[in-house]
User: What shape does this take?
Amino acid sequence: MSMYNSHRGMLPQHQPPNARLTELLEQIRVEFESQAGQAGRDEHQRENFSKKRSSDNIHGAPTDDCVVASQISELQMVQRKVYDLEAAHTNVKAE
Assistant: This one.
């Protein structure tokens, strides 16, 4: 039975057990408020970012999808030219 009660020695002797519980609950409350505040700041930042992106798009700025599609198209064009050059090189080499 003493094995299960050994943790009681870790508590300061001058504090009643309820004081330790109150202290831990206070720490949890402080951490919760901190995390809730951070979540609010993150949400505000996300909203500002979304507003900025939508206002940029109103003024004709390309969306990320358009930029990616343009880059893919450009890479496909480069790939075709490389294949054409490779075929021309093979023909020259064969002659």
